[in-house]
## 1
Amino acid sequence: MKIAIVCYPTFGGSGVVATELGLELARRGHEIHFITYSQPVRLALLSPNVHYHEVNVPEYPLFHYQPYELALSSKLVDMVKLYKIEILHVHYAIPHAYAGYMAQQMLKDEGINLPMVTTLHGTDITLVGNHPFYKPAVTFSINKSDFVTSVSQSLKDDTIKLFNIKNEIEVIPNFIEINKNTKDSGEPCQRSVMAKEGERIITHISNFRKVKRIPDVIKIFYNIQKEIPAKLMMVGDGPEKEKAEKLCEELGIEDKVIFFGNSNEIDKILCLTDLFLLPSETESFGLAALEAMACSVPVISSNSGGLSEVNFEGISGYLSDVGNIEEMAQNALRILKDDDTLNKFKENALSVAKQFDIKNILPLYESLYQKAINKYI
Ligand code: GMT
């Protein structure tokens, strides 16, 4: 199949899912066209089956806001015609589903039917899309999509609760390429670079937005390091990072916390990690938790949104109410207290992650694409 994928190219769950999906589809012989405003960060190499088309928005002094949707829908029309693309898959409703619908209509005018699949990722529904300024357009574009998927049951429930949805929503969870994370790369994890003998390594990875509750990450770690020797690796960048650095100084733990910035070497970082922290306010799925689990890292998370669909209580880690820092720290210490317990949780984390292997999830998308194409035959 010839598939156009529209996504955000930045570090962030929806872009990562879209990119990994496209790359795996290409490996399975499909022709993939990424259409976005810059090359997706996880898209290192282009190949005969993987194309990238940049959306440019020309600057004009009259525009206070640059009309990205307009440029995106025009680019979609051009690329669909040029490459004879058969299906459009948009990730994140805003503004992609809206621009996709406009492209569909323009193409229809020229006698071309382009089926559109929309995948809802989380904040496009729970935080941004729900804003009254966007709601009518988001509702409209979800209802106009040929097929709609959500990355968890919890997100599906939220979408139905928050919007007047007439379309079916199919749950297709986030996925992970298990072999990539478990294969022996030949390079042993170099723990000694990061921590001393006997120190536990704890990691948080995110885009450091408010919804991730970064101060909670620091405070949970603060409580842990009072009891056992430990280091915290903070990976990612975003608006909350500076405050987090200040908080570490105030708590006197700046020598135990390492801020890395954005990284494309997540696997190497997770390879050193004993425990992952994700105390988010809300998380439609929690791809970062799944990525950790696929590297045999147990997870301490909040129990909001879809996190309980990926982090299994007492098995791959523990879940607590949002903001319950004390309980999260206690649960972390339960996991980290001795090597036998930690190893059991590590084994469990990997086996839960295997349920989300890309090999199990990808066929769900392929059959949806086929259904979407058939709809117009
Ligand atoms: O987590 C973020 O802030 C990024 C965001 C995105 O859209 O890029 O992630 C959302 O989509 C991911 C992939 O489907 C999910 O795993 C994340 O849970 C979800 N984030 C939230 O719901 C906050």
Note: Residues 12-15, 17, 92, 121-123, 151, 174, 207, 209, 211, 282-287 surround GMT (CB under 6 Å).
## 2
Amino acid sequence: MTSTDLSHFTENQSKDEKKEASEEDKLGEEFKELILSLPKEKGWITPYVYLFQGFWFPSHIIQPVITFQNHFQAKDSDVVVATLPKSGTTWLKALTFAIVNRHNFPSLENHPLLAYNPHHLVPFFELSVYGEAYDKTPDLSNMNEPRLFGTHIPFTSLAKSIKDSKCKIIYICRNPFDNLVSHWVFLNKTKPESFPTITLDEAFERFCKGTIGFGPFGSHVLGYWKESIARPDKVLFLKYEDLKEDVNFHVKRVAEFLGCPFTQDEVSSGVVENIVKLCSFEKMKELEVNKSGAVGKNVENKHFFRKGEVGDWVNYIPPSMVKKLSKIIEENLSGSGLSFKDNFPMVI
Ligand code: PAP
């Protein structure tokens, strides 16, 4: 490395530290102490991610997670859509909302999903419900029941009342290669301008190391997978690829799991097909709200709809990376009964 390269590196590093310092200034003393005590690694769109309760979080997510853990009171009728980011969250939120509310909104002419992005209708605990509140408990009394929530929080870190109540969790995962590419493209599009572009090599190294927000991939997926085996009435475990293959079947499966199966009349009158069409990638991507709206301050809705395909990773990931990541995932999932091999058949 030349001296110029080195000074550039030091300058970037000190910029990172300044950004993180100003981020930390906004937080209480006690919380600052906690953050400073945690192992940290370079972040993707925040200066650092911190190892908290066995997973990697940006600092601004940790306080909302703690508040959620301390205060959230689940109701038996609640439904939680859980995912690692970029696994099909937006799609599953839309489908779940449409399934659960199909009697309230039988007409597809003025359905809320035509006017609101799914993240608006099914708020995240850590980014929305507790995201703004920090250490306060938000008032959830106005929410219609069943209440629908989303989360990227790993199973082990969910509020105890979610685990203890009869509320239901639907988890969706996606093969790690498409997940990585989707992450990489999304984060480069939504990162603050002051952050440098993340190269595929950097993204790959961090993904393999597990230092993605809410990662590691293997631990996140396995947490929900194991719970779905132990408590199949509690956790429904889905794969993005299976939904792509037969979404009608999975829409019916979700409805059954949530205790609101479609009647024969509904099936024959096309209710399932209508939900599938309403929530399809093609339909959602073209809605005005998803072309021009935004979630929160920073993320434009359009970035949640890129290609929506299975296997797009082959256009980006070279064989050397395929080999390394396949090995890691195989080791992670070994003996669990969970596999993504069908989704990357040219591997191993
Ligand atoms: P999030 O976790 O940040 O909310 P998430 O919705 O899980 O993101 O992931 C976005 C991916 O789902 C994108 O995949 P891609 O980058 O490979 O294209 C996006 O295109 C895809 N997606 C979004 N909506 C749908 C949909 N209705 N049907 C299928 N795929 C979708």
Note: The chain has one domain: 19-343.
## 3
Amino acid sequence: MCGIIGYVGTKNSVPFLIEGLKKLEYRGYDSAGIAVVQDGQVQRVRAVGKVVELEKATLLASPHGNCGIGHTRWATHGKPSEENSHPHTDCSGEIVVVHNGIIENFLILKEKLQTLGHKFQSETDTEVIAHLIEENLKHTRAASEEDRLFRAVMKTSNELHGAFAYSVMWAHTPQQIIGVKNQSPLAVGVGKNENFLASDVPAFLKYTNKVLFLEDGQTVVLTPKEVKLYGMDGKETKVKTTKISWDQKTAEKSGYPHFMLKEIYEQAQGIEDTLRTAKEDFGRILGLKTEDLRKIKNVYLVACGTAYHAAMIGKYYLENFAGVTASVDLASEFKYRTIPPSKDTLCIAVSQSGETADTLGAVKKAQELGFKRLAICNVLGSGLTRACGSVFFTHCGPEISVASTKAFTSQIISLYALAVFLGHASGNISQKVFNKLYKELLSIPKSVTETLKIEYDVRHLTKKVYKSNRFIFLGRNVDYPIALEGALKLKEISYVSAEGFAAGEIKHGPISIIDKGTPVIVLMPKNQLFDKMLSACQECRARGAFVIALTTPDGKEEAASVCDKQIIVPQASEYLQPVLDVIALQFFAYWIAKRLGCDIDQPRNLAKSVTVE
Ligand code: F6R
């Protein structure tokens, strides 16, 4: 939540800052701001709303400087207003700070600084950083102003509690920006005669793919020519960069009206890329020997939101293919459970961003319990990948739309592959069964490509129902989490009420909310549960529901007699069918939101990475 950015080089930093903030906007869009150093003075421009408002304000103020920092905000402390927008300054207005995360002890620090005479202008926790640096600078001596700032920042960081990443610029050091990371992400882009800093790589990917991912407790000092990295003890440490393989296009809309639609269409590729490394990676991924694998009897899956729905499907896979007992928990709830410690338990954390505070908290608990930890994650260098002993990367490229789509299908595929490999390695499934399952898995990108052709039909269908203010999604077995996901997707981008239920449950209560015309989307691919789903359709229809059956070609005729409309997706094996079914529901949510004129990529009140608990 919140995105920070910085540039130091030979060019005017402003166009880069604005462009980069637009790429980080998915992290929050309540307000935005930039500051540059110009002729030894700080120029700051801030605006409430999206980055385009800031862009307009910048055109009027026309700041110019070779060194600048910026921020896009998801409000935590204080309402979205200009005063609460970053960058924040000290009393002199010469020190500017942008920050992502939460300073937990800010009230104590604020009171202390106020008694020392500091005057605050915002309600934010961030502002204490600027004043604390100002205070620490007063008591710091060094050979140069650059070194003095560095020392004051190091001292300041030691006084801050919480999860944060921040960047500082000072009018007296116009060729230097400093970045600090502690549990919130921070990456540095290493360029030629220019260096970049941002919460996420797409912000500077156009200029460099040489990236340094900071570790917790590290501080980085950027000048146009140098990147210097320091540990918590203030000692310089080696800069190790990673070459990012995504090209810039992956982080752009490439002609699509929305990132969400583009990302829906990228799913076949995302799955294929994820599968490409699966065999090799899972061979060594768990870092476990076969005898250790055999000992794993319990698996806890933890995740939030859409990733939680993928984890729910993973539970079915692990039980069915790997023969282990699996349970799935909302990461935010996992920490309240009382679970016995064990060395033979595996905790699998599923997360697109690898930054979700609740998921990181759950993994911390798993570590305390002595569990082995595996992350299924899409972002290189993220906190989760460092918190887990093993990592399997979903290779679906950067996901920009706040509503997760391609990460979800890659997560399902990863969990399927994991369960199948685990089942094979532990002897739960024979070589013959393994070969069959693996073959089915490899054929899924082709089926996904086929499924993507249904957009037109789904779009047409949404014309009938988009004015409804309540939707119900029903599924069973592996399609139950898909019903939940279909409802989540719809409510998050259309703001309408949508609920997903296990089809067998509706008669135990939820059926009472159905009245004339309520759209009920029933997931009923032709499989062993098809007949039960036919009954569910009939029950809903008898109460006046407008039933939309999502079925496969073989179920088409029978479904026609119990529904008002149909969506036909290709048939896959029972356990892979959810991957195809969800695509229809992603299009469904997209087209309803589009017809309602909603802000699809940046729905209200949300941010993509939820870095607060
Ligand atoms: C919904 C959505 C969220 C995320 C959730 C977890 O479309 O995107 O529900 O799935 O916040 O995020 P990650 O996967 O980054 O941990």
Note: The CA atoms of residues 35 and 298 lie 51 Å apart.
## 4
Amino acid sequence: MLKPEQKIAELKQAKKAVVLAHFYQSKEIQANADFVGDSLEMAKKARDLEADVLVICGVSFMAETVKMLCPNKKVLLPRPEAGCFLADCATLEKVILLKEKYPQAAFVCYVNSSAEVKALSDICCTSANAVSIVKGLKEKQVVMLPDGNLALWVQSQVLQKEIIGFNGYCDCHNNITKEDVLKAKDKHSVAVVVAHPEVRQEVAQMADFVGSTAKIVNFIGESSAKEFIIVTEEGILNQLQLKYPGKSFYLVSPSLVCTSMKMITLNDLYIALLKEQYEVEINADLSRKAQIPLKRMLEDHLV
Ligand code: CIZ
């Protein structure tokens, strides 16, 4: 009797399938993926791969992004109900109202958004490239969708622009309080605090480093420090422990677990490969419109 890991490996080979997993996925999924990274790295990798089938272990906006960039490949999301609270914050109606209110502004849309919202935006960004995307725009006024915390952080880094935020937030990162950070610092007094820009502004201000998951991984690799307080989703701990076995990592709060990101189990991955389900399909006209800001992000800002 083959183990699930072996069955997954056989199916990947037989179907010329590649599994791409986000840093926030469970340890088991990361261990069975061909590539683990952030949404930007996943999208770039997917675009450049030869594979016939791409299995995206992440949430729905990540699989949609990959499908829009690789319309001719079969893109599978093992659990189609794995959504994103933050992406759902920006409804089409609210974005249309903002476009009427700020006709001169550039609209920058975080990849954590629906295809419909992307289609209304000028350019996409991820947390890895948000600052450079905003800096590179010719418009002085910029509306950032849908994460208000990310918009505040970008404003603190790009003082020459007026950034209009939106009231969306990641329910996982936004839960973290100053008190959580203070308690962790009390326990681990020499640890360096690294935080994701989706956290509240007052939490970001307490961090020694603020950056996307990929930037956090790089920062820790380059740092001479040995202990770190991690203020982002717990899935990243797996990569950090694998890459830097000599360093110690303390999750700032046990509440930093995204339930959507943890939906996909090893069995779901196996079934997805076996039955080639669930295939991501996007209306052709919508996909064409949403590809424009996505491709602009990838072409102009390879950060
Ligand atoms: O862009 C991503 O992958 C997300 C959701 C977080 C990050 O910082 O990588």
Note: The first strand starts at residue 17 and ends at 22.
